[in-house]
Design a protein that fits this description.
Layout (H helix, E strand, L loop, with lengths): L26 H14 L2 H12 L5 E2 H8 L3 H13 L3 E6 L2 E6 L1 H11 L5
Antiparallel strand pairs: 1-3, 2-3
Helix pairs in contact: 3-4
């Protein structure tokens, strides 16, 4: 049985060296990248991120997102808790609603890590 990844509580900015650019990857960097990739490795979470990125303010409320993915608001909130724990989204409470936005720096850091130069 695969070892479960720890929950990431540190949502500080990440900066990964592109994979293959060095001959090693520290344990901490490997865990940090894996946790973020694991959070993204869900079709519903990917659809939620794409929806938010498609909005004019790149911001959306759970009340808009639940019908979009055909799930209940508590289930959507659960998915966002995973994304937030990985530092990929941030939330803001506005009255009774919770709005989410993507953290562009986190997505950029993952893209940089996965970018292979010379391919």
């Amino acid at each position: 049985m695969p070892k479960a990844l720890p929950v990431l509580l540190d949502i500080s900015p990440i900066d990964f060296t592109p994979l293959g650019a060095t001959s090693s990857l520290s344990e901490a960097d490997a865990v940090a990248l894996a946790v973020r990739l694991k959070a993204l490795a869900d079709p519903t979470r990917l659809r939620l991120l794409v929806y938010i990125l498609d909005q004019p303010d790149q911001d959306a409320c759970t009340c808009e997102l639940a019908p979009f993915v055909g799930l209940s608001e508590p289930t959507v909130s659960h998915h966002f808790k995973t994304l937030e724990g990985a530092g990929l989204v941030a939330k803001e409470r506005r009255g009774m609603s919770v709005h989410y936005r993507v953290v562009p720096e986190a997505i950029d850091a993952i893209a940089r890590a996965l970018h292979l130069s010379g391919c």
